[in-house]
Amino acid sequence: MTALSLRGIEKSFSGNPILKGVSLDAGAGEFIALVGPSGCGKSTLLRILAGLESADAGEIMLGDRNLSPMPAADRNIAMVFQSYALYPHLTAAQNIAVPLVMRKLTRVQRLPLIGPLMPGQRKAVAAIKRDVREMAVSLKIDHLLDRKPGQMSGGQRQRVALGRAMVRRPSVFLMDEPLSNLDANLRVHARGEIVELHRRAGVPTLYVTHDQAEALSMADRVAVMIGGSLLQLASPQVIYDDPAHIEVARFIGQPRINLFPSQVGADGTITFGDIRVGLHRETVAAGASVTVGIRPEFIRVSRSGQHGLPARIDRIEFLGSEIILYCRLDAIGEPVVAKLSPAEGAGLAAGMPVRVEFSADRLFVFAEDGHRVPSTPVDAAARLETAHG
Amino acid sequence: MAKAVAAALPLVRKPARSAAERQEARAALVLSLPAMVLLFVFILLPVAVVILFGFTDYELGYAGFRFVGFDNYTELFTDRTFRRSLWNTAVYTAIVAPISIFMALGLAMLIESENIGRSFFRTAYFLPVASLLVAMATVWQYLFHPTIGPINALLALGGLPRPNWLGASTSVLYSLSIIGIWQSVGFNLVLFLAGLTAIPRELYQAAHVDGARSAFDRFRLVTWPMLGPTTLFVTTISIINAVKVFETVKTLTEGGPNKASEVLLFTIYQEGFVYLKVGYASAMTVVFLAILVVLMFLQYRVQDKQVHYS
Amino acid sequence: MNAQTFTLGRAVRLSILIFGTAIFLAPYVFMISTAGKAQSDIFSSSLSLIPQHWSYVQNFTKALTRVSMTRLLFNGVAVCALIFVFQVMIAIPCAYAMAKLKFRAARPMMVLVMLGLLVPIHATALPLYVAFDRLAVLNSYFALVAPFTISVFGIFLFLQFFRAIPDDLIHAARLDGMSELGIIGRVIVPNAWPAVTAFAIFSVVAHWNDLYWPLIVVSNQTYATPPLGLLYFRAAEAGDDYGALMAATLIITTPLVAAFLLAQKRFVEGITMTGLKG
C-alpha cells in the first residue's frame, strides 16, 4: 500500500535545477533513507515535502490527499532538523509541548494571563502535560524536562527534538541528518533507537543522510540521489550488490568500488585481463566504451601464481578486522584497491609485486551514460593471455 | 510569432509562484506595512517637501507661497550669517572629531593594557554620554564663568590669564569644543574598547615572534589595521555628531557673542522656527542633508576599499 | 603587561588615566558641591568643594518650586516609554519580514531603510512642524512622540540580529503550527532580548536627551521634557543663582545617570552593539 507518494518534483534556485523530476513512493510503515553527496537535493526534497519550500512542479500525495497546496502547519508532517532547531528560550517540556499547544488550544486559550481563564483550557493543558510526560518517559528524558537546550548534551537535545516531532502523532516523519551532530559512539547507538521509534510510530519515514552506513543499516529501502535525480530506490542489499547506475556504485561502498575503462569487443563481450564477460543488452554496440567495476572485497591478491593481473603494492592500511591494499596494475598503470582478511594479507608489504584476480561473476559493466549493463561471465575456464598492453 | 516567444519567455524563467509563496509574501507585506507607511509619512515625504519648500518663499503665518527657483540658494551664499555658520560648524567639527577620536583611542589602549580599574575608568569616561547634555552644559557654564568659575579661579592661582571663555567671540567656539569633546570621548572609547578586546591575543604574540619589538611597531602591525572598521565607524559618527551640534549652543550662547558661535542647526532653527521663514530655512536644511549624504558616501567608499585590501 | 610588577610605564599609564578621570568627573563634583552652596559661598570661594553654609535644602526647594520637576520627569518618562513601545512594535515585525520572509518588496525596502538611516529629525522638522501646526496638534504628547514611532535604525538593528537566528528554528515553528505573528511573539522576540535591550538603551538615551524637537513643538510647561524644562528654568533664573541652577541640573541628570550606574554592563553592551552594527 502506498502511503506517501511524490510525483515528478522539480525545483530550481535562480536557474540552477536542484531537483529534476523526482518520484518516490513510500509504504505505510516504511523507512526510506535518502542518501547522496551534499548538494544532491535531498534536503531540498525533504523541505518541499514538509511544506517549507514549494516545488516548481510535481505533486505530493498522502493517501488520497494532495498535500501540495497546503501550508506546512496543516500537513501534519513532523521533522527533526540537523541542528535540532529547539527553541532556546523554552525548557525541554515546553519544547515538546509546542506542537500540541498550537493544535489543541485555541488562539485565546494560548494567551498569557487570559488563557487560563478560558473554559476547557485547564483540561486541555493537563492533557498536553500528560502526553509530554509519556513521550519523555518513552525517550528516557523525563529527568531533563525542566532544562533548557543550552543545558543539555547533544544526544539529549536530539532526543528532545525527536520527542517534539513524535508527540503529535504525525502522518509522515522526516529527518534531516539528525545524527550528524553526535559523536561517533552515540551515533551508532542512536541508529537503533530511531529504527525502534519508527517501528512504534508506524508511519512512513524519510531519513536524509550523507552517511551510507546509516542509510544501509537503518532503512527498509534506500533512495540514492545524485545531481538532483533519484538514481535507484531499492533495499540496501540490492543497492549494494546490484547498483543500477555507476554513480550509485561509486557512492555506496567503503572503500570505493574499483572502476576501469574498457571497450566492448567485436564479439560483444568484454575482456578484462584473463576474464571475459558477455553483455545481455544488445544496445551496447561493439567497440563502445564502457566502464568495468569491481568492489574491493571481490579481489583476490596472491604473491605467486599465474592467474590475475600483475600489480605492485603501493600502500597497506591495517584496520584490525580487515586490510586495505592499494596496488597499481602493471599493464595499464591504474590503481586498484582490494579488501582482504588479515590472514589473506599476511606477509604482504609495500613495494611487493603481486597478482590481483577479480571474481568474474562480481564484475559490473556500466554503459557510457552510466546505466548498468547486465552481464554474465563467459567461458571462465578459457584463460586468455593478458590482452592489455 | 516573435511576440509569442517573447511573451512565453518570462514564464519559462520564472515559474508561477505557488500558493504557499504567495501567502508568505502577503504575510511579509502585512508585517512591514505599518513601518513602511510611517517611514513614508515621517521621513520620505517630509524630505521631499523640504526640498520643495527650498524653492519657495513660504513663510509660516502668510497664506500661500511662490516658487522662486534657486533664489533661496543664491541668497544663502551671500548671507553672511549662513556663511559664518557653515564656517563655525566646520571649525567645531575639525576640532572636536579628531581630538575625541584620538583621545578615545589613546585612553582605550591605556585601559585595555591596564589590569586594575578597567570598569571604573570606563564608567568615568562614559558618564557624560549618559548625562543630560543641556544640564551638563549648564554646569560647564558655571565652570567657565569668567569671575566666579572654578577654572578661572584655578588659573588665577597659577598667575595665568583668565579668558572670558563663553563670553568672548575669540574663545567661544573653542569653549564649546571642549564641552563637545568631553561629551563624546566616552562613546568612542567604549567602541574602541570593544574593538580592542576583539583582536586575538595570538596576533600580538605573533608580532613579538616576528620581531616587532617596540610597542609602536606592534600598534602599526596589529592594532591599527585590526581596528580599521571600528575607526571608520567612530570617525563617521563623530563627524556627523559634531556637524549636528545644537544643544550646547542653544543652551549657552544662542549663537553669540556677535555670531561667533552660530552653527548650522542653530541657524536653521532660528530662521525656520523663530523667524518662521520656512522656505529659506528649508534651503539651509537641504544643504545640511547634502553634507550628511556626502559624509555617508565617503564612508561607504572607504569601507569598500578596506574590504578589497583585507 | 604584568599585573604584579609596578613598572615605570605602568605608573605613567595609571597617572594619565587617573588625571583624565579627574577632569572628566570634575563637572559632576562641582555640580554636587555647588548645589549645596549659598550665594555668598559661590562668589567667594569657588574652588573649595565643601560648602561653608549648607544650603542644599534652600537650593533644592528653589529648584523644585520654580519649575515642576515631577512634571518634567514624568513627561520625560512618558515620552521615552511611548516612543520605545511604538518603535519596537513597528520595527520588529518589519525587520522579521525583511530578514526571514521571501517577498519581492524586500530589496526596495532595504534601499528605503538605508536612505532613512541618513535622515535625522533636523532634516524633517520643518514640514512636520508645518503639518502639525495645520492639524493643531502642537503642544501634545502626540507631537512629541509621532515622528519617532518609526525607527529606521531599529529596523536595521533588528534585521541584523534576526538574520543570525537559524532558519531551521523558524521552519520548526511553522511545522509546529505557528502563524507568522506567533513566530514573532513566541520565537523571535524571546530570543532577541539582547537586541531589544540594546535598542531600548539607545532609544531612551537619544530621546531623553533630545532638545531640538521638543523645543520646536512644545511651548508650555505642561508638555515640557527634561531638557526643555531646564531651559525654562534657566530663563526664569535670569540672575547668577548657580546654587539653585546646579540643584535643578542635579535633579534632572540623576535618573539616567542612576540607571546607567545600575545597569552599566547592559549600557556598554547596548552602545557597543548598536554602535558596531549601525
By DSSP (H or I, 4+ residues per run), the number of helices of chain B equals: 14
Instruction: Give the number of DSSP strands of chain C.
Output: 0
Global mean pLDDT of chain B = 84
What string gives the helices and strands of chain B in order? HHHHHHHHHHHHHH
Q: What assembly state would you assign to the polypeptide chains in this entry?
A: heterotrimer
Report the C-alpha radius of gyration of chain B, rounded: 26 Å
* Fraction in beta strands of chain C: under 5%
Helix/sheet category of chain C = mainly alpha
| Main beta sheet strand tally, sense and closure of chain C | none
Q: Name the shape of chain B in a single word.
A: flat
The parts of chain C where pLDDT drops under 50 for at least 5 residues are: none
Helix content of chain C: over 70%
- H/E topology pattern of chain C: HHHHHHHHHHHHHHH
How far apart the termini of chain B lie comes to: 53 Å
Radius of gyration of chain C: 24 Å
**Number of β-strand runs of chain B:** 0
State the secondary-structure class of chain B: mainly alpha
Q: What are the segments of chain B in which pLDDT stays under 50 over at least 5 consecutive residues?
A: 1-15
* Major sheet characteristics of chain B: none
C-alpha geometry of chain C? globular
Which percent band covers the strand fraction of chain B? under 5%
Note down, in words, how this protein is organized:
The complex is a heterotrimer of chains A (389), B (310) and C (278). Chain A has helices at residues 42-50, 92-104, 107-110, 121-138, 154-166, 184-201, 212-218, 236-241, 246-251, 342-345; strands at 2-13, 16-27, 31-35, 57-62, 65-66, 77-80, 172-176, 205-209, 221-226, 229-234, 258-263, 269-272, 275-279, 289-294, 299-302, 309-318, 323-329, 335-340, 353-358, 364-366, 372-373, 375-377. Chain A has 389 residues and is α+β, with helices and mostly antiparallel strands. Chain A is elongated and about 90 Å long. In chain B, helix 5 crosses helix 8 (172-197), helix 11 packs antiparallel against helix 14 (278-309) and helix 13 (264-274) packs antiparallel against helix 14. The radius of gyration of chain B is 26 Å and the shape is flat. Chain B starts with a helix and ends with a helix. The model of chain B is unreliable at 1-15 (pLDDT under 50). Chain C has 15 helices and no strands. Chain C is mainly α and 278 residues long. Chains in contact: A-B, A-C, B-C. The interface between B and C is large, with 91 and 94 residues.
